[in-house]
Amino acid sequence: MTKALLDAPPEFDKPASTGRLIWNGLTRSPSGFAGGMIVLFIVLLSFVGPFFVDSTLPTDTSKIWNGPSAEHWLGTQYQGKDTFTILILSGAQPIWIGTLAAFTAIFIAVFLGAIAGYFRGSLDNRLLQLTDTVITIPQFLLMLAIVAFFRNLPAVAVALIVGFTTWPVLMRSIRMQVMSLKEREFVEAAKLQQLGAARIIFREILPNMAGFIFVSFILAINNAIYAVVGLYLLGLLPITDYNWGLMIQEAWSQNAYLNSNALPYVLAPLTMIILFQIGLVTLGRSLEQALNPRLRER
Amino acid sequence: MTAETVAPPPRAGTKGTPPPRPLAVRIWRNYAFKRIRQAIFTIWFVATGTFFLARLMPGDPIDIMAGRLTESGMTHAQARGIAEAIVPYDPHASWYVQYLEFMTGVVTFNYGNMMTRPSTEVTDYIMQYLPWTLFSVGLGVLIAVFVGLGVGMIMAYRRNGTFDHIMTPIASFLAGVPNYLLAAAVVVIGSTWLGLFSFANMRGRLSPGVETGFNMVFIGDALYHAILPVFAYAVTITGGWMLTMKAATTEIMTEDYVMVARARGLKGWRIGSNYIGRNAILPLMPQIALALGTLIGGAVLVERILNYPGIGGMFLESINQRDYPVIQATTIILASTVVIANLICDLLASRLDPRIRLDDTEA
Questions:
Q1: Within the 68-127 window of chain A, which residues sit less than 8 Å (CB to CB) from chain B?
Q2: What is the pTM of this model?
Q3: Helix A210-233 and helix A263-291: axis angle, to 10°?
Q4: Are A236 and A264 within 8 A, CB to CB?
Q5: What is the ipTM score, two decimals?
Q6: Rounded to an integer, what distance in angstroms lies between the CA atom of residue B343 and that of residue B348?
Q7: Which overall architecture, per CATH, does domain A84-297 show?
Q8: How many domains does chain B divide into?
Q9: N or C, where is chain A less crowded by C-beta within 10 Å?
């Protein structure tokens, strides 16, 4: 007992490393582990899979909307192309746009949230007012208006727009975390050492929130993919590549969803996105439990 | 431990008798007044934002109309001339004249006539669509909040019991499903694949021949056509609410006053409703109002998939045609709905929850 006490570092100074907590949280919770595996599987399928399929995809008018067969596992689409191949080629774009969008949102949220939570005062009030204002605007409508007006946006711009419209909720929770962390002893100690505010925020406070930020990032990917796939589904984004959202949009705009032979073309991307989203949410939530000490002790 | 026994030095104006302030200052710093100011600011911000956003975009309503006319075989100059004559929009007017005119319209709730159908008033046009979206989204939220809060509370009561172990994965499963994809899956699997219901009959908002009016036929038919969207909204948000409510209830259950209530021998349901339920739900109220905003935006997708003619499809259409007044009015009306819902929620919460201060201390 005494030895353990001596060995244990002072608790306020060095909590268990975030990586360790994430790993523990993942392996201890079966649903989180399953979620992580689903996410990993879909990411591999979408980014590594394309190297293993024949991406030439010949159009074949004699095979329009054929049902599943040995040759075409998921049947063919309206140009006679193989649905399974399209499904594999279609995952990369929504996933990377969603990830970039989530990254943008998190970046803005962390930056503004840390500043507001650390300095408080009138700057905090201004920033809070800004988030209150942006939060109440129906975000998807805003996104829709911007994207619809600027037709033919490059994918990166779409990611940035989605990121710029989805940061406020995250900013608020990051601000709250910073506010609670800055009252801790190690921040007091850093202040006594006359370290600069930037250093205290970025080197002392934010690393302690790494887990929280990571979880928020995972959940933000979820929101971003909802938006990105939605925009494709409305036919608002330029048709450059194969894309799950586009598959659903094509099935819908041609009323193919009423044709039972065409069902794999709708159901396959639907299943992929839904599985990916569920995977992310279960992964995120069990990590949250692992990383949030208040939830952990109960 | 010692930290709690040492009282912090009183801050000026918060402890003891505060120095009296002039009435005007007290009103200005009043919480309710602050929130109302903020709500007005938000609506102004949204209005101004959409005004400039609309004009920054490539193409104006005259271009779009002229483009459509050239398709019918006119020369470009002819089409342009006709479009300029039809569309009540002057592209040469300076932006501040337009802005002033527009803001006057916002304040007086007069958004003028549509650009694409110059004889129709914008508000009349929006009112053909808005009630249907509010009806389906509202019903969905209502069901989700009731079910979610109720089930979440039971989950917290029976923490680590069978019910909790079954419901928690289901709840996070539901929280992960995007509403419009659930709608698509229900249509594709339920109607096309299994033939459980006829999606063809459920499209639209009413069956042909049903008149709007306060009677059973109309209400029944409206509900029948709204089942799918309401289902999609309700199911996808219930999961999140269960988890939120479970967390909130668990937190409240460890509070001292709940212990005291138990010690006093109060009945279980009384503790549940008066002590735990009320205190767990109150902090969630603003979140419920915020959820409304997200849902109204997302309704565009659900309505597109389910062919439900609400505000979503109309908004998309008006963007494509650059019908400035319709775009602006829709955005402002929807944003105001959400802002006002938030405002009411916050004011109600501050009435019911003494911890939210109504006086002029820091917000």
A1: 125
A2: 0.79
A3: 160
A4: no
A5: 0.80
A6: 8
A7: Orthogonal Bundle (1.10)
A8: 1
A9: N
